[in-house]
Amino acid sequence: MCNQKNKKTAPSIDAWLKEAKCDPQALQEGMYLVHNGTVRQTPKAKVRQGVDDGSQVTGMEFFYDAAKVEAAIEATKKMDGIFHVRVWLNEGQLDLGDDIMFVLIGGDIRPRVIDALQFLVETIKTTCVTEIEQKSETKE
Q1: Most exposed: 13, 24, 39, 112, by fewest CB within 10 Å?
Q2: Element holding 48 (H helix, E strand)
Q3: In what order do the strands lie in the sheet with 129-135?
């Protein structure tokens, strides 16, 4: 975002939505959800487990396994009521505020689209990517 050197260019969500709505299956879709994950200053351990060592995230190394991501996308497309799935992942050295990922899900009804988004993002985060937080020194 703020410092894009040596980083992939993030997609246009407007363009993604226009493309999705032009697809013949769009007539079956009643909802689209977008997820935009970014590099935050608060460490994952503090947010998820409540473990506060006093450090702050200063950046992140981010990598992914493309075959695993594709398998996760295909599994999501097989979910009931889901007709559109699109994913973009950044990679390499990321700074605070940089985009990590974008996910777009289109489907027939809200509960199915929400479930599909939750499934896909969770699958990507737990089985497809490596995130290495770089942290500041622990405050004493």
Answers
A1: 24
A2: helix 44-49
A3: 92-95, 57-64, 129-135
